[in-house]
Amino acid sequence: MRTLGFCGDWLVTSCGTKLVAVHTKEDREAFVFDCSLAEKRPKQTKGEDTSDGAASEETGNDEVLAFAASASGRLLALTDDTKRLVLFGCEPSWRCISTRWVVRRCTALTFSQDEDELLVADKSGDVYSFSVAEAERDGELKLGHLSMLLAVVVSPDDRFIITADRDEKIRVSHRGSPYNIQAFCLGHRQFVSALHIPAGRPHWLLSGSGDGTVKLWEFESGRQLQSWELRQDGSAAEQNQDQNQNHPAPEQNAAVCRVTSSPDARHLAVLCERDSDRRLFRLDSDEGSDLGPPHRLPFPRPPLDVSFDRDGRLWVLMDSCEDPVHVFCCRQSGWQNLEGGPELSRVTERLKSHWSPAEASRSFQHLFKVSYDNVTSYLQKKQQRLEEQLEEGGAGGERREKVQEGGVLPRGPDPNGERLSRCSC
């Protein structure tokens, strides 16, 4: 899975087993960390839970699954398919602070705002807390869901941990006492795959889902402020909160992969699975909670990921060895592609030597819930059976079928000369 992010002025991306960081402002050497060459897992880890079969998952391909940077850009953490959790310091130079091990493969990471805690969400629905100051200490279980967790964020005031799972739920828990739930943000109809709190709007929460919608919440109360339905044809239509049950056909929707906003919280970027368009909304920075009509950035192939830098420029990660990244800047005339700039050229040259074609694009297909309708099939077979019995036995066959189904018939002989008694099966 290829992802893109920023740690201060460092552009960070994952490329298979490698984490590659390139400085966008200065001509500095790229930092590369290869998980396949990193510290190997010890044979036995203190406190590891093997009750769910975790011990049988000793092997992995060392592919980077997720990474996250702290708000200050001084720390970065990654986790890989071998259940390795690595903490880095980024300034003044890159260094590996610690390598620890998680119980199960992780799906999302985030730092607390004061950067003393690293929260790790895993596929079983648990969130573990890892100390930053005590970099060698094992993780502690913080909270849990009944289904796979797909996203986790911490509120700007560090009071709440917000988690999203495969069962369409967004839970707002108190960080100090996670067993106390502040609110649920309910309304999505498929797994919630992305969470984001815009800068400067500490009470807002943006969420993206497999149902093809982006929703805006006031998360402390769980109140939905706005919902946008994204179509695979690139259009976006505002969905009235009171008409939330009127959904388009599922094939018109695309799973949301990423929701992120610019540092000034004026622009919102949304990426959908297998979609060649990047949608950019304008967030209302004054009173209110309106999303302006989307601006589309078309690409010849679906982008892999997207992120804003500190200057509000939009960087787009592509599956291309020649042009792995594109940069867009907002002008009065709209978003313009910055081609041939010194920063883009430097980043591209640094990435080329470590870039390889993606083995597989990001896919959420395995997360969609499948419902089975066996009632229709049963009714069809029942009707067929009734018709066959009517053809074979006439009215007597129909009466017997009703008795077998628990019906009540009056006493008396049937047309075939048999006497039927009252039956209540």
UniProtKB/TrEMBL annotation:
Protein localization: Nucleus
Domain of life assignment: Eukaryota
Biological processes per GO annotation: tRNA (guanine-N7)-methylation
Ranges where the record places region Disordered: 231-255, 386-425
Keywords carried by this UniProt record: Nucleus, Repeat, tRNA processing, WD repeat
One Gene Ontology cellular component annotation held by this UniProt entry: tRNA methyltransferase complex
Record's keyword annotation contains Repeat: yes
Keyword tRNA processing: yes
Matching HAMAP family: TRM82
Stated family: Belongs to the WD repeat TRM82 family.
UniProt name for this protein: Uncharacterized protein
Origin species: Oryzias javanicus (Javanese ricefish)
